[in-house]
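Extended Data, panel c. Modelled sequence:
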Amino acid sequence: MRWIKLLTRENVDVTTISQLDILFNGFVWQLTKNKNEALFTILKDKKFTHYISVDPYEIGKLAYKKYFNSKKQIIKYYNEGKRLLKKTKKDTVKWAKKLTENPSKDNFLSAFKEFRASFEKICYIYTVLSWFAIEAWQNDFEQILNKLIEKNNLEKHREAIFSTAYRPWKKTALFEIQDKFARGQSVKQLVEEYQFLRSWAVVWYRPITEDWIKDICRSVKKTQVRTYSSKKLLNLLKPNKKEKKFLDMAPYMVFFKDWRDDVRRFHAYHWSFLFDLIAEKLNIERDDIGYLSVDEIEKMLQMGELDRNFINLIEKRKKDGCVVTIAKKGVLKIKVINGIPLKYKNIAREVEYSKQEDIVSGKIAQIGIAKGIVKIIRTYHDIKKVQDGDILVAITTHPNYLPAMKKAAAFVTDEGGIISHAAIVAREMKKPCIVGTKIATKVL
């Protein structure tokens, strides 16, 4: 069995990972019919890394052909998401009031179970299923678009074709913020209205600040980019039936990729009060709850107290990290192993230090040439390292990185495709960008 690193993220809690991993494994089992340990996660110092034993592209291809094979399906998930968010707002208002008036053990258990049921839905459609599908889809679409450009001798139209093809169906929260700021809405109002963007992890988060809003709004100065009408694009590219289907879906996929993140963040934000109340009821730091799985939190609520066993679990995981994986072969239940056993250390070491090229290459998201000093950005706190003209290198980029992206001359990322955040911003800013290198942060 060959393991590969799927992705790495900072500041995502065990609570969130434990729900994600059971769905990740279940989804892979469903598509491959192989009920082995398909994925595990190592968490150390609030940084987690997923390792997977199957080809994510092959899983993703199966996923988008089955679940994301038309714009009609994407619209269906969009409408389902809006209904889920409406229900989330209603349910959280109800439970906030109920738990304040009657903070009984039974009420806390009922509230947590309702949170967990909705969280599972959010994680399945808007994290696991869509992540696999979109990653593979964008890879295939890029190949199709490049072949059409080459076949029709349209290299001089490449930039306009890409800008047209990747124009999103609707605006997501980030673009709404920029539009409202430009129309004169106050930063204070925007902070309040869009506070839900703070995190998709359910326990660990940092609040959105006025400075964050100012950076988001003042750092993206879009360059005028030529685009075509949909009809003109089809006339230029002359796609066959399969290629046209990809082109028709592109605006919906581009939109859904970012909008699903808005959904996850909205859900986590509105249920945030529950973890504040759990911390208060059981006399535990909120941050510490994030070292417990969803099963462990439910068990703690059933007991109605924070006993020594839970305190020990939290302290061990803070100090030594942990591994989240399946309980045993063929059983879709998550276990959290305190510390990092030798088996998992060896897999991580083998993946990290396997023989690989030291040439950084990937997908070109925006053509161009730039020269500058490499600055590796691992978290939001690193963006202050970036000076004018530097080359920003990151595992992936987020809206938080925009102030640094404005200063940088070019971007290089380990992860992502041509509809990733880095790629979209690069095209807006007309800055050279290479994504999906896998090794840039390590080699550089």
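The longest helix spans residues 105-151. This feature is highlighted in the accompanying rendering.
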